[in-house]
Design goal:
- The protein is an alpha/beta fold and 949 residues long.
- The chain has 30 helices and 31 strands.
- The strands form eight sheets. Strands 20, 21, 22, 23, 24, 27, 28, 29, 30 and 31 form a ten-stranded mixed beta sheet that branches.
- A hairpin with a 2-residue loop joins strand 29 and strand 30.
- It is globular and about 85 Å long.
- 46% of the residues are buried.
């Protein structure tokens, strides 16, 4: 859909980051609706910047669109400002790819990552034109499904969601879509279709079950199945995640996201068995991707998307059996590409020195670990297999390699926690800081202690535990603040109001559906955002339905029936209760899937094969083939060439005999190894910024264009220092919503990597890699003494398009009346009010306004995509280097109407020579008389080649 036809185009200028609602990103898939059997909208109930970083979302988008007869598009929760605009205009929430409302899809699938997104799901259904309640949907309405970790205990959403996927989605999603399309085409009524879905396995269909009240707790629980629906519903487990290669070509976000990089899932599941961690329980067994597949995925993704950062990720990356050789080989594959590699979800032990040596060449200023508890007793309670000695050894290793920052994650509100354990959190940080100061021999180390509130989650050993009352959490946070005072440790703790609500929704039953609906109608939105959460609304909702939340947050009987017991995630009930009892006795359960007594995997084949100890197994209920697990790990090590132990680290022993120079060399870490790039060539590029890109901010453009250049394999010239970046210089930024036919940037490239390149043809080389709305139209090599484009510019030409009907509302009946209004305004003072640091100032606009021409510029409007009956007005604005002209404010002042709508395009930016406008690409006209040495190196100047604008 072209932007000018998009239903949101009239009001996009009024919302924050409008480009996030328009689609059109590189890697986006747009399929013909008429040529597919089933159309799915992947709906993420949070902002674009969060959803676009989610790995499961990317996997399903690629998987469904890779099917010839299926289609997937995307939708994200609209922020408060867009919701307001949609409601004011009775407009629908639409998918990014086609611009169709959610009600047009056959299936809408929600990603459930947090209980605090429940009200956003109702908002998206409401704005999408879909009945809120599942019982109110007819045969023509979309099927509403949901999956993700929260789906394993989402009974509070049972009134709104038709079917929940329990388990891995790669196989079950396509199966669902094909089944739904087949039954729909056969004329099967909706109720019978839902019954058929329940029989597929892995799908919990709430309408196919009856419920009763458990006498022991008062909870409403699933009691029996209707017909032949399965009970319990068993989690679907994908035995081999490598069967579905991780996607390498998905949409590249058009604005900054929380994880703006290539992230690859290297394993699913976790061996550690932390008793508070739901993901570690419900994603069993551990399944690792083939390391060569991981390396290939990263290199292909970097090439396809142009990212400059990649990440290896899983629940615990340090427990990937071949993590050390994988990091080493991945860095080798990325060598010379200026791509930073990070490793997420690190443990506070087990990172070999070889891994840290490799990681120390990367950009990260610090590393993050999660001890979770501040005393050894509490770490044993939660089964966090790390000791104080291991944590401090890790601190010594990272600070000795030049890192200056360490972040430690902890929780309060854990079962059996005492004040001593709370104080121990800060003291652990203090001891890590002492290590930093000792190793670095200077007090520039930084340790941050970040503390969240524990929420007992279903399907974990702590599912029966009480949650600390809100007042108790506040008391413990006060202890933390007092303990941290004057220690040098930076303390952060989360707002625990959201944790309270999360606890209620996590352990709640179907009765909460009415509460969620009430809270949504009363304005609850984005409850996971501290500045949006309004607990008064939720408390009013509980009171309105006379629902006491105390039982949901209290200690629960181990033998009681729970609202999630009908969902079998693969764990034996006895396993969870045994782990609960071990926790209450402060007893550890060492990691499973590793040799007895081992905390880490062997990093080489020789030691792996020599270790004949049995792998630990707790009979949790998930059948693991331990023999196959051992064989697979050996194969990974062999494939990576990790046959023998690695050479000792250069920092294995820290000696007191180290010289000051040696210490400085070691501690002054210089990531992204510097290379001699030679003398750069400077190239000027001309490009357009139209359509959806007009709603992309300048910082997004600065972030996106280097990705275009990397995809085109340009030899970019990088800055030096800790975070090398491509060296670029842009023309003055445009305001959001203003299109442009003539933008420019100066770019430095490595001459030594492309000595024979004809830089005048560079724009042609870039055209196959253009972003939607960005078109390159010219290029020229600059001489050594040529000024940057920003220093040359002296004129900007804008064209506005005004609809006659709109002008009539302002009392301007024709073009002649418009001319008179402008002449009258130019005859007097032309000013605007501007706030500068909270102080109102009057700005004289006439100083920059050089000319106004009514009736000129229709061609520029047409080329920018603005058609119809529009009266063009051309503005010539001067650029003096001290201020950037504001064409919209200037035109509003000329029309004497600040609210008059109009279309605006920057026709061009110019250098004025001898009273004439010259293109910044026309070096022959804009250069002053120069000595021959000022010309580009070579026998003759390289001329520009420019297509017609």
């Amino acid at each position: 859909m072209e932007l000018r036809q998009h239903p949101y185009s009239p009001f996009l200028h009024a919302v924050n980051k409008p480009v996030q609602y328009l689609g059109g990103e590189p890697g986006e898939k747009r399929k013909d609706w008429s040529k597919v059997d089933c159309r799915m909208c992947l709906a993420f109930p949070d902002l674009y910047e969060i959803g676009m970083s989610h790995l499961g979302f990317k996997i399903l988008y690629s998987l469904v669109n890779g099917h010839e007869r299926l289609l997937a598009e995307r939708a994200f929760a609209p922020w408060i400002d867009l919701e307001k605009e949609l409601r004011a205009r009775d407009e629908r929430l639409r998918a990014l790819e086609s611009g169709r409302p959610l009600s047009d899809f056959d299936v809408v699938g929600f990603s459930l990552q947090s209980e605090l997104t429940y009200t956003n799901i109702l908002m998206m259904l409401d704005l999408g034109g879909i009945p809120r309640l599942a019982a109110d949907r007819g045969d023509g309405d979309p099927l509403i499904v949901a999956g993700g970790p929260v789906a394993t205990h989402a009974e509070p959403l049972a009134d709104f969601v038709d079917a929940f996927l329990i388990g891995d989605g790669e196989e079950k999603t396509t199966e669902l879509l094909e089944t739904w399309a087949r039954l729909r085409d056969a004329g099967v009524p909706r109720a019978e279709r839902l019954a058929e879905l329940a029989r597929l396995g892995g799908w919990y269909v709430p309408s196919q079950y009856t419920r009763t009240v458990d006498a022991a707790t008062g909870f409403t629980v699933v009691d029996a199945a209707i017909g032949d629906a399965p009970l319990p519903v068993k989690r679907h487990i994908l035995p081999d995640i490598a069967k579905y290669a991780f996607p390498t070509d998905g949409p590249v976000a058009s604005t900054e996201t929380v994880f703006d990089r290539v992230s690859v899932e290297i394993a699913r599941g976790c061996t550690e068995g932390c008793r508070f961690c739901q993901a570690g329980m419900i994603y069993r067994p551990v399944r690792e991707r083939d390391p060569q597949q991981v390396i290939d995925t990263i290199t292909k993704s970097v090439a396809n998307a142009g990212y400059d950062e990649a990440s290896l990720t899983c629940l615990s990356t340090a427990d990937y059996s071949a993590i050390q050789p994988l990091v080493h080989e991945t860095l080798k594959a990325l060598e010379g590409q200026h791509v930073n590699l990070s490793v997420s979800s690190l443990r506070a032990y087990g990172l070999s020195e070889a891994v840290l040596d490799d990681m120390s060449t990367q950009r990260a200023g610090g590393l993050t670990f999660a001890p979770e508890a501040g005393t050894q007793r509490m770490r044993d309670v939660v089964n966090k297999n790390v000791t104080e000695e291991q944590l401090l050894l890790t601190a010594e290793r990272i600070f000795s390699r030049g890192w200056t920052k360490m972040k430690l994650y902890f929780m309060i509100g854990l079962p059996t926690e005492e004040d001593e354990d709370v104080r121990g959190i800060v003291q652990t940080g203090v001891r890590a800081l002492k290590v930093a100061n000792k190793v670095r021999n200077r007090k520039d180390g930084k340790v941050t202690v970040s503390v969240s509130t524990h929420v007992p989650k279903p399907h974990t050993p702590f599912q029966w535990c009480a949650m600390d009352p809100y007042e108790e959490i506040l008391r413990k946070q006060a202890i933390l603040r007092e303990e941290a005072r004057r220690t040098g440790v930076k303390l952060k703790h989360h707002d625990s109001r959201g944790s309270w609500l999360e606890g209620v929704l996590a352990r709640g039953d179907i009765r909460l559906g009415k509460v969620i609906s009430f809270a949504y109608d009363a304005g609850a939105r984005f409850d996971s955002w501290e500045d949006q959460l309004n607990l008064d609304v939720w408390k009013a909702a509980f009171e309105a339905h006379e629902l006491d939340v105390t039982p949901f947050l209290s200690t629960l009987p181990v033998d009681a029936r729970m609202p999630w017991d009908h969902l079998d995630v693969g764990l034996e009930p006895g396993f969870l209760s045994r782990e609960y009892q071990r926790a209450l006795k402060n007893r550890l359960s060492p990691p499973c899937g590793k040799p007895k007594g081992a905390f880490v995997h062997h990093t080489n084949l020789e030691e792996h094969e020599a270790d004949e100890r049995k792998l630990v197994c707790y009979n949790c209920g998930v059948a693991c083939d331990l023999t196959d697990m051992r064989t697979e790990r050996a194969g990974f090590l062999k494939a990576l060439g990790a046959n023998t132990p690695a050479a000792p680290s250069r920092l294995t022993v820290l000696t007191e005999s180290e010289t000051p120079q040696e210490r400085r060399t070691r501690l002054n870490r210089r990531p992204m190894t510097q290379v001699d790039q030679g003398k750069p060539v400077r190239v000027r590029l001309g490009f357009t910024k139209l359509g959806r890109m007009a709603f992309s901010g300048h910082l997004d453009l600065v972030r996106l264009l280097p990705r275009v250049f990397r995809r085109a394999e340009l030899p970019l010239f990088y800055s030096e220092g800790f975070s090398p970046r491509p060296v670029m210089s842009f023309t003055p930024a445009l305001s959001l919503g203003i299109s442009s036919l003539g933008e420019y940037l100066d770019l430095k490239l490595r001459r030594d990597l492309a000595p024979d390149e004809d830089w005048s043809q560079l724009f042609l080389r870039l055209q196959p890699y253009e972003l939607e709305g960005v078109g390159f139209f010219g290029s020229v090599a600059l001489g050594e003494n040529d000024a940057s484009v920003n220093k040359l510019l002296s004129r900007a030409t804008y064209v506005a398009g005004l609809a006659p009907a709109v002008l009539a509302q302002a009392g301007l009946q024709d073009e002649a009346a418009l001319v008179r209004r402008i002449e009258e305004r130019r005859a007097g003072p032309l000013t605007m009010k501007k706030m500068v640091k909270g102080i109102g100032r009057t700005v004289d606009l006439s100083a920059q306004l050089e000319d106004v021409r009514v009736g000129e510029g229709a061609e520029a409007l047409a080329r920018a995509g603005f058609t119809g009956n529009l009266i063009p007005v051309t503005l010539e604005l001067g650029i003096d280097g001290s201020a950037t002209p504001n064409p919209a404010k200037t035109l509003s002042a000329l029309l004497d109407d600040a609210d008059l709508p109009f279309q605006l395009v920057r026709e061009g930016l110019y250098v004025v020579r001898d009273g004439e406008k010259c293109s910044p690409l026309d070096l022959a006209r804009i250069r002053p008389a120069m000595k021959p040495s000022a010309q580009p190196e070579g026998d003759s100047p390289i001329a520009s080649a420019t297509e017609s604008l």
